[in-house]
Specification:
By secondary structure, this protein is α+β, with helices and mostly antiparallel strands. Helix content is 22%, strand content 32%. A hairpin with a 2-residue loop joins strand 26 and strand 27.
Amino acid sequence: MIKFFKLLAAALFTAFLLWFYSSGLEKLLTPPSDLSLPKATSAQPMAPPPVQNTQPSKTAWSETEIQHQEQQALKHINQLRQSLNLPPFALNGVLSAAARQHALYSVHHNQQSHQERPGLANFSGETPKNRAFAMGYHSPVREVIAYNKPSADLLIGDLMSAIYHRLTLLNFTHTQIGLGIADDQNGTVKTALVAQTGNADLNQLCQAPQAAQLGQYYYQALCQSGIRVSRKAYQIALNTPAMSAPKLIHWPANNAQVAPVFYEEEPDPLPNCNVSGYPVHVQINPIYQGRITFAPQSFKVYERDGDQKHAVKAATIFTNQTDPNRSEHNTQIPKPAWIAFFPKQRLNWSQTYQAEIDWLEGGKRHQLQWQFQTAKQPGLAIIPSPAPKTLSVSIRPGQTRTLYFAPAGCQSEPQASIKTRTPRGLQIETHFVDGETLQVKLVSANQGERFSVYYQPTDTWVHFQVKQH
């Protein structure tokens, strides 16, 4: 009997060892869902051209100019990050190669998407991760794209107006970026800027196999090479850059100057609107997620008028937990990470705004409050909705007047166009700032002359009278 129990104990111990070394040595996990970008996201703000070409059309950028614009894009992004005390991105050549290739694909095929189709010219991978892996990057990436703006600064401005793209450019945990621009001025996609971001430490982990340790959890299907990365090493890689960042950041930054408008992005945070106010958001450093929360109904935005302030009506306010576009496959609601305020209507040009929100940490309530401005427009004339059929505006030679046609609610015409009537010898230049904002510059004219501009979306004739002083 004693011998039987000894044999049974030995068998049980052997079974335990087999179980421990088969299941306790490497506990495999699927990669975190937030490593990849959401379903196809691309900033697609409306940029309507005038019907009559009253100013020289843009010529395609040379290779030298494209390189200059890529450098300017990197500089602009890092200036934005540093204004929030986020560490700057380091430029990565492999990610830049992947970004450039997709930019070329986009303009060649007039496509606004993160997806590529095999077999087509300039194809380099169906998804951003596939393209980065094909170029030699080893860990997951995020990608953002902007289209059809005449400069890198304006392309980055479009990305910052779109909340999901903004969250990528202001990421706490990514340290590298690749940028690529293509420009041919043909078709519907004339210019494309593509940016891919990644984490340098994680990319390094994906190139060096780790020795297995007892009881350690590992991520599989994370790296291009198939190398498994321990959950602990993964967290250290992501937390390292976040450790040098603030607890909270917000955009717009304090005293930043931004556009007043948000149009659309995909996925669409405001599916019932095609024009609304510039979104304001607050973001929690991931190191503090779960320790910091937002006080309910405390996020407010006001327009300042001297000592007075007027509440801005929100179309919606949501967090990453209540985001209507969060992954349907994510059954676990993540910890609070960010909150976004979407104004119901466009903000006004040349105005100061104040944002405030209460947040909780360790049982204590704190308030975050800051101000930002919308960009100034020269000679601003505001045309309220509904716009009149005709109106008169004075202008001097050399002066620029800005016509802002305030939209009704959060809907506007999907395309804007103009017609002009000018006497012989009078010269003007026109420029759409956005779909509701038109700049008109009088280059030369005689005293008392008149000219007219027709704004198609509101069926309005604006009659300009020339004055010398």
